[in-house]
Amino acid sequence: MNSIIQLRELSKSFGSQDVLKNVSLDIPKGHIYGLLGPSGSGKTTIIKLMIGLEMPSSGSITFKGNKLKANELYPSIGYMAQSDALYDELTAKENLSFMASLYGLKKAERKAQIEKVMNTVDLLEHLDKPVHQYSGGMKRRLSLAIALLHDPEVLFLDEPTVGIDPVLRKEIWDSFHRLKNDGRTLIITTHVMDEAERCDRLGLLQHGEIISSDTPTAIKEAYGVSSIEDVFLKNGGVTV
Fold it and tell me: Alpha carbon of 176 to those of 21, 59, 112, 142, 215: distances in Å?
């Protein structure tokens, strides 16, 4: 398995609270890797460690075989946080143009790239609409478009479909699979069971520890259950 990111014996504490305990993971290149677990299990902390927003208390992270260095990592990744970081008073185009300038995209390529990412998230016809007129689902898709602006190799998506209705969630996941088919690696946190089943591989988090990391089918077979939720129930009674 060709891993693009490796975590080895990774731990993170905040004061006396142990948030992550000896986490080891291999994230395969060109896969959708899901981090699944209940609230407070450490999903967002893992994401922040992998993109250099937090430093581990112990353990190591490698990106493409080299020790993680945040300043070298950023040109290769896109990050979509749980909360939308958008300027509501600006249009989508103005939000994208501003972020494109921060990414260092040249003016000549901005227009084409903005149209490309808005087409990817099916918002091109709303490009000139002020963001305060967007629905919650449209804002999530605009945030994804921003994460895609500089054509990143790896996407980190923290609860990307939170608060979105089932029909729109399916459309967003269809876009995730198109991105994967284009050769990107996606790392997604979720607590939604049907989303977990759509990942190529899953890391199941409970109380800051990885209890399993494999394909959804292999995990269910290993535990002798018919659903991922049953894995958590069998492993201590905590549901997602």
Answer: 30, 30, 21, 14, 17
